[in-house]
Amino acid sequence: MKRTVTALALGATLLLAGCSSEDTSSAAEASAAPTATCPGDASADDPTATVIAKSATLPSGVTVDGAVTKLNSGQTPSTVDLTVRVCASDLDGDALKDTASAIAVTAKPSLLGSMIGVLTVTEVGGDSVHTTNFQAENWDPAQPADSHRAAWAS
Fold first, then answer.
1. What are the DSSP calls for 75-132, one per residue?
2. Which one of 31, 107, 122, 136 has the lowest number of neighbouring Cβ atoms within 10 Å?
3. What is the CA angle 75-148-106, rounded to 5?
4. How far, in Å, CA of 121 to CA of 152, rounded?
5. Shortest CA distance to 69 belongs to which of 17, 134, 19?
6. Direct distance between the N- and C-terminal alpha carbons of the chain, in angstroms, rounded to an integer
7. Cα dihedral value 141, 150, 76, 114, nearest 10
8. Distance CA 122, CA 86 (A)
9. Running DSSP on this structure, what letter comes out for residue 65?
């Protein structure tokens, strides 16, 4: 399983490297500056999971610091637990759940989507929310983020 996750990470890295654009000025101008310092430790980050999380459309002032995957040793050992760290000022309650839903909507159709068992989104130095059965939820991008709030527990 670890080889599969590593192979997916390498494949995604190569795929994304091939799709990069030379003009990054418009992307830099469109993204809002983070409103909080993000001191996360990226040494254990999963590059594929981080790229997937960073591609989510997040509320203004929220940035992804990184993401970590680990094999789920619970009821379904063939799944992975995905933890995404976000940075923002005072992100809690419904705002954190909406941010988590935006990440879930992006993660569901991704390379890791079918392997995710538990998704946890945590604000660096703050609260966190998780969904214990990621696959059971309908992460429909056409639905507003607030319609997914019931899927999240603190």
1. S-TTSEEEEEEEE-SS--HHHHHHHHHHHHHHHTTSTTGGGEEEEEEEETTS-EEEES
2. 136
3. 75
4. 10
5. 134
6. 29
7. 0
8. 6
9. E
- Angle, helices 47-54/93-107, rounded to nearest 10 degrees: 120
- Coil vs helix vs strand at 73: coil
Q: What is the 3-state secondary structure (H, E, C) of 36-53?
A: CCCCCCHHHCCHHHHHHH
Distance CA 61, CA 72 (A): 31
Q: Quick one: tokens of 132?
A: 């214990």
Place of tokens 């790229």: 51
Q: How would you write the pLDDT of the chain (154 residues) with one tens digit per residue?
A: 444 444 444 444 433 444 333 444 434 334 444 445 666 566 677 888 889 999 999 988 898 988 888 876 566 667 888 999 998 887 888 999 999 999 999 999 998 898 898 899 998 888 899 998 888 888 888 887 778 888 888 8
